[in-house]
Amino acid sequence: MESLIPAKDIFPLQAILITMLSMLSFARKPNMPTHSLSHRRRVLVCTIAWAVLPAVAAQAELTELSLEELMNIEVTGASTYVQSAKSAPSAVTVVSRDDIRRFGWRTLQELLTAQRGFHGSNDRTYSYLGVRGFSPPGDFNNRILFLIDGIRVNDNIYDSVLAGETFPLDLDLIERVEIIRGPGASIYGGNALFGVINILTRSADSFDGGELALDIGSQGARRLRASAGKRTGDAEWVISASGFDKDGGRYEFPDVAAGVLSPGGADAEQQQRVFGRIRLGDWRATLIHSERRKHVPTGSFGTIPTDPGHREDDGYTLADLAIARNVSEHHSYNLRLFAGQYRYDTQLPYDYSGEVPPRASRLLNRDTQRGQWWGADGRWTVSAWAGHKLVAGLEYIANTRQYLGNRDDDGTQYLNTDAHSHRSGAYLQDEMAVADNTILMLGVRHDTAETGKSFLSPRLALVHQLDADNSLKLLYGTAFRSPNAYERRYIFNGQYGNPDLAAETIRTLEGVWERRLGEGIRFTGSLYRYRVANAIGLDPATGININNSPVDAHGTELELERRWSNGAVLRGSYSGQFLRQNGQSPDNAPGGLWHLDAGAPLGSRDLYAGLGLDAVSRRNTNSGAASVDARTLANLTLTWRQTSSPWEVSAGIYNLFDRRYDDPTSLDPQLPASVLRDRFAQDGRQWRLKLTGRF
Question: Which residues contact 171 (CB under 8 A, 6 or more apart)?
Fold first, then answer.
């Protein structure tokens, strides 16, 4: 058959995949207990690889993906305007809607932890992200800035976005995700220490009618989504509503209740999301709303173990009205008005019978937080001068409410404080073509934070195109994160809050090399150094947030990707990161991360197989002397869709080999001194079956 890959190319492709699988299975530090796959499981993984890649060879055409599709992908989040990824002042990864479908990622957390330099953890209440080794247990993802269609999503209590089921946007509504690594404060201000995640939603054209999705899975999980969208001339609308419900199971947490299983329904979870968008010419209006309820079975904060009454609820709403207009060929402006609110409610069952005088043996404590804000921003983009592209912008955010409260149901009040604040920023950036193949980007932003402190955030980027196949980037940037309302003002029994906290700052220097190795093959490598000063975290002795010693880090990220015209993909990455704080490795800071995604049509193009492998090296815990073992996880997804059919069916198995592993957890100062809690066991094998129909 003339359309097949030459036979001489088949074996090298299989060898590459198996070499990567072996790296994931065997990679470990000297004298570290190996917790990679057993020999039998490694054989099975390799068997899958040998099954997949001949299918790639049998299906792939000689006309592979073009260089423009692979290396000139357009991004908007790096500089607020459209530019090619290879020209962006950052190491950028773009994840498409097809990738999300084919690899079966269920949450944004799963999507991000499959990318180079990212790892995750979970305390059975929320999911947390680590970037380039930095992920102190208890961190609320407030060192990453999240955007949805360019709209800032981070709340005004924790300045955070949690990317598990708490994330306010359904994953099925994402067109692509732009992962922009490194400081982004020169454009976006606070929180963009380690990067910006810009999520672009699907257009009305991608629906052109209605879409219905239903999936079921382990622990009684079920999800239903109904979406619709339509374009007429220069007007379009999209609306979507979804609900998620999980029954949970039974768990044991021996550190607080040895030998006792939690009641049925532990770890249960419910989620509702609504998304709507209308475009009329240059105008756009967006509404995002989500509600999430979670049963917490862990006995955290000293609550009664196994009591089903421990529940944590989150609510989030964001509304946005924006206009983007091209005044002329070289002038454009963007204006936006937005408002949001965040709600957190938790009820915690306590046994107060041992107090003097004794109180109830079961009494609910209620923690309440309310955040409300509105703001406006505008920017002007000018390319009237040859060799220059200027962006100037202003931003103002008014935090009209930042309420923190805590009380018992018997009327005892522990915390009742409300406040308001504001932040503002102004920035200027110039992208200069200093030569035919060299771009120099200079940017700076001045911010006044909620605390009244001022910050100057410069950025310098030099992008040089060596030839058609090679580009080099030299990047320098700074960013800051002011202590949030929770860290400054949540003072409960003398713990947690500290009004005297200083802002965190980061300085990063990075070099990036992007190279095309052949048709459809791309390599990305980067070397970086960064220093985080005044890192905020809980003092283990007092349970109060303090500014810790600086964290110094250096590392490397390597990624090799091969794509074929039929949708087959092979992508592997390695991230080596070395962090030191007071001469020691910080908690939850893995020295090595390995990721592998391999996907291809099987037999016919109607059936697609996606295999994902994720490995994390050993991580220290908050106990000061212990660690959680290295682990390797595998996920397998099969997707069936005929071009002529409105239906798509997918089946996924997560943690394919039922790997038992732990994640480090944060300090819990309310547990008894005799309890050493430094980790949480994670779920074993899970499954999901999903049906999607268009009409």
Answer: 100, 105, 106, 107, 108, 111
